[in-house]
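pinned: reference chain
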Amino acid sequence: MARILIVDDEPDMRLALRNVLKLRGYEISEAGDGPSALKMAAETPPDLVLLDMRLPGMDGIEVLDGLRKINDTLPVVMITGYGHIQSAVDVMKLGACEYLQKPFENAQLVETVRKYLHGAAQPPRRFPAPAGEAPPAARPGVRGSRRGPAYSFAAALVLLLGCAAVYRYIRVSSASYYREYPGVAANISSFVWTKDKLYAGDWLAQNVTVYVQDKAGLSLKQTFPLKKTHISGLAVADGTLYVADSWKETIEARTLAPGLPLQKRLSLPDKVVALFYDGKYLWTCDAEGNVVSRTLDPGLTPVISFKLPEKPDQIFKDGKYLWAAVSATGKIYRHKIDGACSLDGVFTLKTLKAGYPLSAFAWKNGRLWVARDGLGVISEAGGGELVPEQ
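pinned: its structure tokens
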């Protein structure tokens, strides 16, 4: 029988949770404060903890940190009031598995508990690409004929106008392009492209999955488990995969080879939530929005730094701009690469997925790639997917 520890300072809340879960056959223990919860977790290890965010004295974040020191593989589900935590990506930064936002339904509670006690999560699988458009029919040959100069000029003009129309159509089609690839990992916290390979970090399953873009669409190639690594950011540089662990405040350097063998683990003073390699520097962004470009020496020496007010979860740098995404708001910010990294634009996504926060994004060949936490889909879209705020 699975044992669940409920940590909440409100007796009525503990009673409600206990009644629902006891009816499902779970063994329940309760604590009304942080010190009691940590003592109970150490003496009688639970299989799952339901932890309220706001507690007297020692708050939920401090209790979570204490629980991780006791058992860093223990599933912890945070219970929050409205607005305290905006998304599962934010919870991941704190080291929890997921969150329940008050008020929640009993069915939602039971589903979440079963998910972490009975292994409901399924591994990624290969999936077919949606059927594309049929190729245009072959154009029949045109036999030559003798025509006058006026006819030749008219034909050339028609051809020119036709090409212009086709060009405009291609540009519009490219901007409005949208395609979804289902069946991928549902809890992607970061991804990075290397040529035709997409490396996706799953913070819940604690693994890196490699997908390949081919004629069939996007296909699963390999999955590498990285147990006890809370993946918050990925970057690839010179045959090395850099993996940020915001909870442990480390960056792992792993060889791009079978098994992703660990080269070294670097400790940083802040919780790094995002990484990006621009071909010269490794860019890091912490939970407070501090962005630092670093050389790829043994100590990742800082070169320049600045602070972004939006505190992004993901960053991406191209030749002109630094892009930053915030999971809580679903917005993407564009900053000029100048001395102040000044804000140049704020965008929302045209295709909405209510209840599934933006958790990863990247640009590749003019296409925007997006993942949403909790939704086993990766989206590929043209530039028209970004809607500028006025």
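why pinned: The longest strand covers residues 217-225. Residues 72 and 228 are 7 Å apart (CA to CA).
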